[in-house]
Amino acid sequence: MAWTFLRDNLYLDFLPRLAGEDGVIRGPADGGRVAAVAQDDVAAATTAVLTDPSAHAGSTYSLTGPEAFTLTEATPDGPGPAVAGTAPPPSYGLTSRRGTSDA
Predict the structure, then answer these.
(1) Spatial separation of the C-alpha atoms in residues 22 and 25, rounded to whole Å
(2) Which residues contact 13 (CB under 8 A, 6 or more apart)?
(3) From CA 60, how far away is CA 4, in angstroms rounded?
Protein backbone atom coordinates (compact mmCIF):
# COMPACT_ATOMS: atom_id res chain seq x y z
CA MET A 1 0.00 0.00 0.00
CA ALA A 2 1.41 3.43 -0.97
CA TRP A 3 1.68 6.13 1.66
CA THR A 4 2.65 9.80 2.04
CA PHE A 5 3.12 11.58 5.38
CA LEU A 6 2.46 15.29 5.80
CA ARG A 7 3.99 16.47 9.09
CA ASP A 8 2.46 19.86 9.95
CA ASN A 9 4.26 22.24 12.27
CA LEU A 10 2.39 24.50 14.71
CA TYR A 11 -0.29 26.44 12.85
CA LEU A 12 0.41 30.15 12.40
CA ASP A 13 -3.34 30.74 12.67
CA PHE A 14 -3.21 29.47 16.28
CA LEU A 15 -0.65 31.98 17.60
CA PRO A 16 -3.11 34.80 18.36
CA ARG A 17 -4.90 32.47 20.78
CA LEU A 18 -1.80 32.46 22.99
CA ALA A 19 -2.42 36.13 23.84
CA GLY A 20 -4.83 36.77 26.69
CA GLU A 21 -7.28 39.65 26.92
CA ASP A 22 -4.60 41.52 28.88
CA GLY A 23 -2.24 41.29 25.90
CA VAL A 24 0.18 38.90 27.63
CA ILE A 25 1.34 35.97 25.54
CA ARG A 26 1.22 32.74 27.50
CA GLY A 27 2.63 29.62 25.94
CA PRO A 28 5.22 26.88 26.30
CA ALA A 29 7.85 28.67 24.21
CA ASP A 30 10.02 30.83 26.51
CA GLY A 31 12.80 31.86 24.10
CA GLY A 32 12.21 28.95 21.74
CA ARG A 33 11.70 29.44 18.03
CA VAL A 34 8.91 28.11 15.85
CA ALA A 35 8.52 27.95 12.07
CA ALA A 36 4.72 28.07 12.20
CA VAL A 37 2.85 27.23 9.02
CA ALA A 38 -0.36 28.74 7.68
CA GLN A 39 -3.26 26.31 7.33
CA ASP A 40 -3.77 27.54 3.75
CA ASP A 41 -0.23 26.39 2.93
CA VAL A 42 -0.94 22.97 4.46
CA ALA A 43 -4.12 22.75 2.36
CA ALA A 44 -2.17 23.60 -0.79
CA ALA A 45 0.43 20.91 -0.04
CA THR A 46 -2.30 18.38 0.70
CA THR A 47 -4.04 19.22 -2.56
CA ALA A 48 -0.80 18.73 -4.49
CA VAL A 49 -0.30 15.30 -2.94
CA LEU A 50 -3.90 14.21 -3.47
CA THR A 51 -4.01 15.32 -7.10
CA ASP A 52 -0.89 13.30 -8.00
CA PRO A 53 -0.46 10.66 -5.29
CA SER A 54 1.93 8.44 -7.25
CA ALA A 55 4.45 11.30 -7.51
CA HIS A 56 4.55 11.52 -3.71
CA ALA A 57 4.28 7.84 -2.76
CA GLY A 58 6.72 6.88 -0.03
CA SER A 59 7.52 10.51 0.83
CA THR A 60 7.41 12.37 4.12
CA TYR A 61 7.04 16.16 4.04
CA SER A 62 7.66 18.46 7.02
CA LEU A 63 5.38 21.45 6.47
CA THR A 64 6.79 24.55 8.15
CA GLY A 65 6.87 28.29 7.70
CA PRO A 66 9.78 29.91 5.86
CA GLU A 67 11.72 30.95 8.99
CA ALA A 68 11.63 30.29 12.72
CA PHE A 69 10.76 33.14 15.09
CA THR A 70 10.14 33.62 18.81
CA LEU A 71 6.76 34.64 20.18
CA THR A 72 8.25 38.00 21.15
CA GLU A 73 9.36 38.55 17.57
CA ALA A 74 5.79 37.80 16.46
CA THR A 75 4.40 40.77 18.38
CA PRO A 76 3.97 44.20 16.83
CA ASP A 77 6.08 45.76 19.61
CA GLY A 78 8.69 43.00 19.60
CA PRO A 79 12.30 43.53 18.59
CA GLY A 80 11.53 42.49 15.03
CA PRO A 81 12.18 39.24 13.27
CA ALA A 82 15.69 37.82 13.17
CA VAL A 83 15.39 37.76 9.39
CA ALA A 84 13.31 40.51 7.82
CA GLY A 85 9.80 39.49 6.83
CA THR A 86 9.65 36.20 8.72
CA ALA A 87 7.37 37.04 11.63
CA PRO A 88 3.61 37.23 11.30
CA PRO A 89 2.38 40.72 10.50
CA PRO A 90 0.79 42.87 13.24
CA SER A 91 -2.62 41.99 11.82
CA TYR A 92 -2.37 38.72 13.75
CA GLY A 93 -3.25 40.77 16.82
CA LEU A 94 -0.47 39.65 19.15
CA THR A 95 0.78 42.04 21.77
CA SER A 96 3.24 41.69 24.61
CA ARG A 97 3.93 43.32 27.93
CA ARG A 98 7.56 43.58 29.01
CA GLY A 99 9.04 44.31 32.38
CA THR A 100 6.00 43.10 34.34
CA SER A 101 6.06 40.41 36.95
CA ASP A 102 3.05 38.59 35.50
CA ALA A 103 4.38 38.27 31.93
Answers:
(1) 9
(2) 38, 39
(3) 6
